[in-house]
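ARCHIVE CARD
Drawer: 12
Card no.: 0347
Subject: one protein chain, sequence and derived structure
Cross-reference: see card 0346
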Amino acid sequence: MTSDFVNPEMPWPSIESLREATELAGGSLVPRLTVYPEFVRNPERWIDPALHFAVMDRSDANGFARDDPGAVFPEKYADAVNVGTGAEVIQVGRRSTAWYSGADIHPSIIVGDSDLVAASPEIAEILNGVRAGSVIDEQQITQLFTARGNDVHAIAQLADALRQETVGDIVTFVRNRNINYTNVCTFKCTFCGFSKGPLSLNLRGNPYLLSDQEIVDRVLEAQLLGATEVCLQGGIHPSFDGEYYVDVAKLVSEAAPHMHIHGFTALEVLEGSRRLGEPLVEYLLRLKAAGLKSLPGTAAEILSDDIRAEICPDKINTDEWLLVHETAHSIGLTSNITIMFGSIERPEHWAKHIVLTRAVQQRTGGFTEFIPLPFVHMAAPIYLKRKSRRGPTWRETVLMHAVGRIAYHGFIDNIQASWVKLGPAGARQLLLAGVNDLGGTLMDENISRAAGASHGQGISDTQFAQVVQPLGRTLVQRTTLYQSPSLLPQ
């Protein structure tokens, strides 16, 4: 494509000119590595083992070169890039370092208030089908995840239109607090920088287990600060039996009777029922009677067992995660769908995850939202052992939220952006790509921080408003179940 000028004083042909010419011809200009994507995707056969990590670290989920170099921010986006309080000062017109999940670096602007763009014929056919009321299948979802260039804009624009049609111009958030009662865990998830073995002092912090009084104090403090929800989750402590989770739910419920208890991952629930030898549905009924109102979708990671065998080999499998949530829905508990993406999996795994969870939603209607969680690599053991990518690219992150809106359309109304992993500036851009919810204020967020995320452990209503207002949207506080807090008992 370009002449190879050995003389450093001679300029390289303009990549931007090549990109414009390519797009005029109906294509997308995509950077690749020295090896082509089909070889990147099959390194065991084609690439020397000594180079596996170097290639993986520089590639995206499709096997191309990462397309998230530093971005030059035009003047019109000055407000967007000035959101946040990180140490790095981004100047408009200056080039930043590359964005990655959890870093205090602003992503490049690839979604904005722009004129409608024309998609390629293959992508346009899928998007037109959605506009006509079709539910896209696994193959079509996978194809959307491979989009580049104008196709990304077209997908984001449809997602934004569906968002406006479904929930209007309201952007919601919940005032909540995370209570991670222990970071000691018997499981060995390779992506987790939070959990510790009983004697481990590696990574961040020492092993701990909160006392009952410490849990109650945090609940009451959250209530005093106006929180309507506490999110309870932690490691699988070797001393826990299933009664621990029931007791914690009772503890919180008695201390703050009107607080919504959003707690216990599918792993914690299933492990609790197993340690007691109690049927799953009976155990969930006891948790509900103790005060539990909803389950978080965490512990899903990627619902594909071949990937789980690498990132969480001793954890619950895909069928077990789905079973816990479907059983919870059957007794009146709600939950949400999360997906952790950007480690070792590929677009076909993302599509499978969406299709499996959508099928449960079609049967039960119990999922309240979809929450993409970009993999934070900095302190993740799997990355430190040189066995994963460095999280998703920004293009992949935009697509995950936008495609999620499109694929779940008609089944799930709310798409949430995780400001902890994306940063406020990233969350603002995703509000133009199908997102309508910013999640919680998250007093004491610890899990992303332990993995290396640099964004704060809490965010204020004022900071949320700074994200939303330049877009002309209205920020509204919600409850966990997307109701007005004014409807709660006082």
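Annotation on reverse: The domain at 170-487 is CATH 3.20.20.70 (TIM Barrel). Confidence is low (pLDDT under 50) at residues 70-96, 198-203, 445-456.
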